[in-house]
Amino acid sequence: MKRKASYDRREMHGNPLHDGLRIEPTPGPTTLVIFGASGDLTRRKLLPAVYRLSRRGRLPAQFAVVGISRTPMDDESFRAQFRDSLKEFAGTGAGVDEVAESLASRMFYVSGETDDAGLYERLQARLADVNGAEGVLFYLATPPTVYAAAIEQLGASGLADAPGRGWRRIVVEKPFGTDLDSARALNRLAHQHFDEDQVYRIDHYLGKETVQNLLVFRFGNGMFEPVWNRRYIDHVQITAAETVGVEHRAAYYEGSGALRDMVQNHLMQVLSLVAMEPPIAFTAESVRDRKMDALLSAQPLVSNGDGTSPATSHVVRAQYRAGWVNGVEVPAYRGEKGVAAGSVTETYAAVRVHLDNWRWAGVPFYIRTGKRLPKRTTEIAIQFRRPPLEIFRRASHASVAPNLLIVNVQPDEGISLRFETKLPGTRMQVAPVMMNFRYGTTFGSEVPEAYETLLLDAMLGDPTLFARHDFVETSWALVEPVLDAWRATSGDIPTYEAGEWGPAEADDMMARDGRRWRSL
Amino acid sequence: MSSSSSELLPSGAPVSFSEISEAMALGTCQHSGATPMRALVATVVAVGPTERLGDAAEALQALGDAGTVRGILISEGDTTAPPARVAGNTVALHGLKPAFFNNAVAALRLSSLPTLVWWRGGRPDTLDGLADLADRIVLDDDPPEPVWSRAAGLFGDTAFSDLRWARLTQWRALMAHFFDIPEVLAAAADFSRLTISASDRMSARLFAAWLSSSIELQAGFVVELKDGSTGTPLDEIRLGDHQQELVVRLAGHRTCLETEVSVKGHRSVSRLVSLQAHTLTGLLTEELRIRARDAAFERALAHLVSRT
Fold first, then answer.
1. Cβ of A431: how many Cβ atoms within 10 Å?
2. Could you give phi then psi for residue A159, rounded to 5 degrees?
């Protein structure tokens, strides 16, 4: 393991002018080096995020971007690509303004093959030219197949080492491995050249405002944590539904599927935030330790020892058929461009997770995710137990609905609480009502994009919202037996019609537990 | 008198003081017919002479219509039974005797949520009673010196800020960013002169007071204030000596701030950041996000008042 990165947020507190400053901390002098600079992620997310950070005044006085990719380009072409990406993806309408032009003048480009040592010599020279010996954030926005080469070459060229008071960090996009072995191998390689506290495994779900608010909601309020346990909570449902199909990602998605694409990373992160014990402080290690504890308590998703096959266990996969979504007819997954005619890749996955710990023993966490579902929504629903005695049942001729706490992650970020109330009138009738808090309308300010938050945190040296190596590996260890069991299963994959809420098997899974999926 | 009241909140309905709460609840329900009821976050009370409350009324109504605050406008006068008008989440009381400002606020503020008082002028001693009730007082007087002196003695009672101060946020942030550069930090001891071009001299003095109270400046450090030409509070700030300089200035048709740094051992770097629009609603929104005492403002104001 190498030495610790030295220039971080704590050091910036040495600047007396930051005391009491209303604008949040800004990083020290930084150069952002983007591998995969001509790629989709860079154009759609990274460059617009850099621009918005600049507009908000969150970038340091000394800041530069160096783009790297195979595509032959000069600095001016890269700047033109930056301007184009703003027009298309920055959501500002105007696209290019004075701020963008000022930023463009600090953008540079180096082309080359990721495994070519010469590329890193040219990069070294360019860094010396634009930034000197200050902070450098390497961002791997490339296909995962070139992660290893980039990490190795950064190490071999000495670029992973920061001279003097500078720092070096590396951001690695998902997927971090395709299974447990590959994730371990990538972690080993990264640790040969970087310290763990220099490695930032990005999961953009953790940059979402509502996901972060889970921590504030649970640990910044005194009234929720006492009921946040098996005594009061019946079960938890985590849903990540998309209306889109595989789109232009068929090549990636065919080798991935819903379980790898969503459950292993994003939804396990969300689950751990819901289930974690209170950290002793809001520090990266304390928060990540408690998340890790929660994940370690998860029971295997597939019982291989007792003869139970995955088909009858609480794991469901399915693939969408042709159907109708968002007002248009859509083809089946197997009819999408780039998808094999006999593909058994799952576009829907549902799992039940049990956490074996004092807080959650006996409380199931149901996770479902899918493509081509009726609406785009991501939410966490905490369903509480019913009152022990239903004294209004006779008067109302119905059971009271259990209390429900819903954390809307997207698109309408907020928190809702469902509780029972008396209907106005002379009869004692009860009915459920929703109390809603919405970020967009309550605070009236623009919610930052997840990539803005995470990019800034990486520059500031705050890894709280990034996945740690052990979390990634444990998460893979949890889902890998499911993938193995699916691979070993003969016969076709279950299906659901595009535009419906998943396959009948997922409903059956809930029914076996005497529960139903929330209607969304 | 009632015509002045309607000028403050022309879309509002006249009500008696005792009916204000009911009228606001009704107004909120009617409002929620079009837009779902939202979570309120604070009460904002604007106090001052009638002629300075017109634009304040518009800002409070904008915040009230967004569903985030209850707005209370109180204009200074000599009546003990002021006419009131209610529009949605905003109420206007016209010509109330200053001695009863705090009673009116106590009756009309939202319970359990912060109360922010927006001081747009009036007798400075009224501040004392409001300081007991308010969680935060945002000063916005012209000229500000009398109320600044009064406020400096009330820092122990409540949190204070000033809209002039809020308008300086980005200027201060950009100056702070310079000092993240190690070479700038090292050169700071050599800086001997601060030159500020400003159309609002008090903003310039506040900025200079902040800098002087935040970093150690060499003996004989010179602060020079020049008249600005853009009509915005500040035009340009230059800090340095005869060889080195940090510059923050308006640029891009006053929509941006440009920074330049030129110090020993560091190559000159220039950049532009967008200048946030300083509407009253935007400035109040910024103030509503702050919950703690603003130690930097208190230090700067105390520094400034002590030299006045």
1. 12
2. -70, -20
A129 and B CB contact within 8 Å: no
* Cross-chain CB nearest to B176 (options A18, A438, A441): A18
Nearest to A119 by CA among A154, A162, A161: A154
CB atoms within 10 A of CB B112: 5
Q: What residue type is assigned to position A55 of the chain? A: R
Q: Could you tell me how many residues make up chain B?
A: 308
The letter for the amino acid at A35 is: F
> Are residues A17 and B170, on separate chains, in Cβ contact within 8 Å?
no
**Cα A469 from Cα A139, distance rounded (Å):** 17
Ranges of chain A with pLDDT below 70? 1-13, 23, 91-95, 131-133, 304-312, 396-397, 444-445
- Asked if the bond preceding A16 is cis, omega within 30° of 0, the reply is no
Residue matched to tokens 């009131």: B84
Note if the pTM is more than 0.90.
no
All residues at 6 or more sequence positions from A44 whose CB lies less than 8 Å from its CB, including other chains: A85, A89
Cβ under 8 Å to B: A residues 76-105: 97-99, 101-103
Which residues have a Cβ under 8 Å from the Cβ of B259 and sit 6 or more positions away? A61, B174, B177, B178, B246, B247, B248, B270, B271, B272, B273
Interface test with chain B among A15, A24, A30, by most B beta carbons within 10 Å: A15
Residue A31 CA, distance from chain mean position: 24
Q: How many residues does chain A have?
A: 520
HSE (side-chain half, CA atoms, 13 Å) at A4: 4
ipTM of this complex: 0.73
Q: Nearest residue of A to residue B299 by CA position?
A: A20
Q: Evaluate whether B71 touches B89 at the Cβ level (below 8 Å).
A: yes
Two structure tokens written together for A314: 């609480």
Of B36, B174, B214, the CB nearest to A16: B214
CB B165 within 8 A of CB B206: yes
Q: CB of B115 within 8 A of CB of B291?
A: no
DSSP E strands, B49-89: 69-79, 84-87
Amino acid at A403: N
Cα separation of A130 and A125, whole Å?
Answer: 9
Type of residue at A130: V
> What tens digit of pLDDT does each residue of A481-492 get?
999 989 888 888
Amino acid at A512: R
Return the domain boundaries, chain B.
5-134, 167-274
Distance between CA atoms of A393 and A11, rounded to whole angstroms?
Answer: 62
What's the longest Cα–Cα distance across chain A?
A: 84
